[in-house]
Design goal:
single chain, 148 residues, alpha+beta, Alpha-D-Glucose-1,6-Bisphosphate, Chain A, domain 4, seven-stranded antiparallel β-sheet, 7 strands, 46% strand
Length: 148
């Protein structure tokens, strides 16, 4: 398993950021390779189940996701299955008017789709993708704050 961990601080209230990030249907706005989220359903644990479509190195991948654990305004974990298998955990910590957001993903290299790519290349692609996700999330809340 490979892991990626990213952290940023956003000048916005924790509740706003948590509400936005915890809805899977919002994630394609900030996650460049996440093509689509569909059939989003609210689960009894307060999280969501959904179907996803993702593009990686020219390959279109599909699967399902489900929030296995969620503590509102603190953290949630999603188990992703299908042509990519991973566990994604988002955590949120508030300090005054800022929110510290952590994005952690633990994944297996998709088989057999990306056999021709080395583990190092896949890791570098995923690291860049995670950087974009966090930068886009931060930019989203700068725009929301300006528009408010």
């Amino acid at each position: 398993m490979a892991t990626i961990n990213k952290e940023i601080t956003i000048n916005a209230p924790l509740e706003k950021i948590f509400t936005y990030v915890s809805r899977p249907s919002n994630l394609p706005e900030i996650w460049p390779s996440l093509m689509q989220i569909k059939n989003e359903i609210l689960l009894p644990n307060g999280g969501y189940g959904f179907q996803w479509e993702y593009e990686m190195a020219g390959a279109y991948l599909k699967g399902t996701g489900e929030y296995t654990d969620i503590v509102p305004n603190l953290w949630f974990t999603a188990k992703i299955e299908g042509e990519i298998e991973c566990t994604i955990t988002w955590t949120f910590r508030s300090k005054e008017s800022q929110t510290r957001v952590t994005f952690a993903i633990e994944y297996k290299k998709p088989l057999p789709i990306l056999h021709q790519l080395s583990k190092k290349i896949v890791q570098e692609m995923n690291e860049r993708e995670a950087d974009f996700i966090m930068a886009n999330l931060q930019a989203k809340f700068v725009l929301i704050d300006v528009d408010s």
